[in-house]
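name: query_chain
kind: protein
chains: 1
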Amino acid sequence: MNIDPSSIVYFEWGFVRITATLVFTWVTMAVLTLFCFFATRSLRKAKDLRPSQHLLEAVMEVSGKQIRDIAQQDPEPFLPFVATLFLFIICANVFSIVPGFIAPTGSLNTTIALSLCVFLAVPIFGIGKHGLRDYLREYTKPNPIMLPFNIISEISRTLSLAIRLYGNVMSSTVIIAILLGVIPLLFPVVIQLLGLLTGVIQAYIFAILAIVYIASGIQHKEKTTK
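structure:
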């Protein structure tokens, strides 16, 4: 049994290696891109919304409300990034019900990449709001000796994001595979549904933590400058 989709290699030539993680990441991105293209191709007014446009607007509205409630500021700067993270993770997890589809979020490579996006987004948004010098100065407060500890804190929470998402998706896959061998009929279906629920929850948690990390850096700076 292949636990990590990165262990499934479809093509290899020299240093070029096409794994299941890469293929199904492309598939997920392609489906999302096509869905968003057709949903926004001819936008309609509120009284005549198509189901795809209604769904997309609902996701954007809920995401914006969550960002506003957590960050306590205008969600517009953060909405594209956070909503994209949420949509990618939830689609990658939900598509696993399709026969033959392997969730790319079950690979540590994918979860680390997503966590690195959050890791980079925190200073990008912070520098964009406060400037490079003022943002970097925060790492030396209240004393320059805190610099290595603050850096370690940033790295550790990035790793925790990656491992949390990977662990939950992988554990669900392993449990389903075991139950299919023991009880191959009804019970694995129930576990599959629970796995989908877990996937949705994990997408939500990942997006919320991304908001928290971004907002905490910005708000901390704002408090210290008042």
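note: The chain has one domain: 5-225.
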